[in-house]
Write a structure and sequence with these properties.
By secondary structure, the chain is α/β, with parallel strands linked by helices. Helices cover 49% and strands 12% of the residues. The protein folds into two domains: 1-102, lambda repressor-like DNA-binding domains (434 Repressor (Amino-terminal Domain)), CATH 1.10.260.40; 103-132 and 148-273, Endonuclease, Chain A, CATH 3.30.870. This is Helix-turn-helix domain-containing protein.
């Protein structure tokens, strides 16, 4: 698989940026719309409309194009930005999504909810609905978020470590079956060689990142950036000394966390506590 594409400074308007990238990738590959459709398996007119910005397509076709072009997660990240109103996405978050697609390793700390890269459909739906999304908009956002899980799949998937405060796993979904499925997915994900899940027990006391979730992205050039997020705002941090300060807090918390095997047992205990469906 070719190396991840480095994002350049083309259009910052999400829908136009998505169309530009589609055209560029096909041109670089040297195939026509008809040839592309024959290989990937969709109608050539659909690809033409996507490249002209008339339509965005769905997550399935975008994932197929990511696989064909060898750009795991890049097109899906651009598509996720394009499906919503561009005014909803601040420049920092747009840049973060681009960097996530090209990161060679990722480390996350979750203070209240699971990271998007580990969310099931049911979990994502409830979280996004709380933010006000509904109807077709909600469906598209759920598909976009859960589609990003492809970034962590396959032989070339980057290493990902999720450090979860105990409160994340003590806060169930309203739907017991959806919560059961989410916990089962965490157990499944923890078995993959590139994914490490650790739980930070409440008994650890106060810790450095008590008020913010954070994602660290290590890039191709060896630089690490951080994206912090709370209930009101997110911030992309690229200045070295600030990133190092956050990393030291993260490392300290990781040392206090349960090891991966103990964390897996913790998730299993949470799963056993989910009420079983009663037959009528």
């Amino acid at each position: 698989m070719p190396p991840r594409r480095v994002i350049t400074g083309r259009s910052q308007e999400p829908r136009r940026r998505f169309a530009e990238e589609l055209r560029l990738l096909r041109t670089e590959r040297g195939v026509s719309l008809r040839e592309l459709a024959k290989v990937v398996g969709w109608d050539p007119s659909q690809f033409g409309k996507m490249e002209s910005g008339q339509t965005l397509g769905g997550p399935e076709v975008v994932q197929a194009l990511d696989q064909y072009y060898g750009t795991p997660g890049l097109l899906l990240a651009l598509w996720e930005l394009a499906v919503g109103d561009p005014s909803q996405f601040k420049e920092q978050y747009r840049r973060y999504m681009m960097l996530e697609a090209e990161a060679v390793s990722l480390w996350h700390f979750g203070v209240s909810i699971l990271p998007g890269l580990l969310q099931t459909d049911g979990y994502a739906r409830e979280v996004l609905a709380l933010g006000g999304a509904k109807g077709e908009e909600l469906n598209q956002q759920v598909e976009a978020r859960t589609g990003r899980r492809k970034l962590l799949e396959g032989e070339e998937a980057p290493p990902f470590r999720a450090l979860l405060a105990e409160a994340v796993l003590r806060t169930p979904l309203r739907d017991d079956e959806a919560w059961r499925h989410q916990l089962e997915y965490l157990l499944e994900a923890s078995e993959r060689p590139n994914i490490t899940i650790q739980v930070l027990p409440q008994s650890s006391g106060l810790y450095g990142l008590v008020s913010s979730a954070v994602m660290f992205l290590r890039l191709l050039d060896g630089k690490t950036v951080a994206y912090t997020e709370n209930a009101y705002r997110g911030e992309l941090i690229e200045e070295n000394s600030s990133v190092e300060l956050l990393q030291r807090a993260y490392d300290s918390m990781r040392d206090m966390a349960l090891n991966p095997a103990e964390s897996r047992k913790f998730v299993l205990r949470m799963l056993e506590e989910v009420p079983c469906e009663r037959s009528i």
